[in-house]
Amino acid sequence: MCDTLCAFPPYAEQGTVLFAKNSDRSPNEPHLVVRIPEKKHTAGSPLKLTYITIPQVEHTYAAILCKPSWIWGAEMGVNSASVAIGNEAVFTKVKRGPQALTGMDLVRLALERCDTAKKAVELITSLLEKYGQGGNCGFDHEFYYDNGFLVVDPKEGYVIETAGKRWVVVKVSEKHAISNRLSIRKEHILRGGVEEGFDFAGRLTNPVYTFFSGSKERRQCSYLSIRENMNALIMMEALRKHHPKNDSSVFKRGSVRSVCMHAGGLIGDHTTGSLVAVLRENKPSTLWVTGSSTPCISCFKPVFVEIDSGSPVFNDESEAKNYWLKREAIHRSVLAGIVNPVLHL
């Protein structure tokens, strides 16, 4: 479960585009923030992803990735060309297929290989058609889903929604939010595997899983958080929001309806990491990451893709994992009643 949102002027400050995402996954799954450098490769050499191997390309861009500890790909990230991408689990009527690309693999591949949002859309959809998507994406329990993506650069943005090898695309402007549900109906401008005018969400949504994901409330909350002249600080607050009915009890029971998701009871997912990006054209973009779970009690730290500024971004995944685990002790202390979050914020 996740939520992703973006804002263009006039909803973002002039000269900037804002991108933000929470990664909502198993509360026990370490969320790593890692830097991958720009590299030259032997074109066509084997590249091992989470489950399958595909040919490598000659050149890959530098990027900061926010990723589960055991997955090759990433939940979200930003590259040196200021392309930002986040993915969402979406629940469809398509039957589960064999191991293939994961949505997180597609996020990382697009960040490594593309210098515009448009090129990222073209890459994601072409790889999806060629290799398909599939494979367990759960950490401590099996979890299978299709994927949606928000793809943004300093000039434009797109939403991709998928069901198996079928996909549709809409262009976004001003402000947008996606969550764990198909949202594109007949308005798609690009498509694969379906005809023009096909009601993608209406025909392919799995209504039961989608309803119980709480995504309707979370998407509404994210969208309504976007107002004119937003900056990174306001976007951080959007990622910290709880559903009004759960705000006073988030550390006592889970809340799947909250953008800042808390696990507990029957609620198995938790916000394990958060990212806000301020994208600029022809200037370095600023990323703000928690490197820790539970953004309502976490600090966002500024980092840059091509500047090694230390924690919470690491070149080594084992160091990133240890960093996350140490900070997770604070959250667990709150749950145990050792730390009062109200007194310490």
Describe the structure.
The structure is a single chain. With 345 residues, the protein is an alpha+beta fold. It has one domain: Penicillin V Acylase, Chain A (4-Layer Sandwich), CATH 3.60.60.10. 23% of the residues lie in helices and 27% in strands. The chain has 8 helices and 18 strands. It has helices at residues 103-113, 117-131, 200-204, 207-212, 215-225, 232-239, 317-335, 341-344, and strands at 2-7, 17-25, 31-36, 39-40, 46-48, 53-55, 59-60, 63-68, 76-79, 84-90, 146-152, 157-163, 166-172, 175-178, 190-192, 270-279, 286-289, 301-303. The strands form 4 sheets. An 8-stranded antiparallel sheet has the order 3-8-9-10-11-12-13-15. It has a 6-stranded antiparallel sheet with strand order 14-1-2-16-17-18, covered by helices on one side. A hairpin with a 7-residue loop joins strand 8 (63-68) and strand 9 (76-79). The longest helix has 19 residues, at 317-335. The chain is globular and about 55 Å long. The protein starts with a strand and ends with a helix.
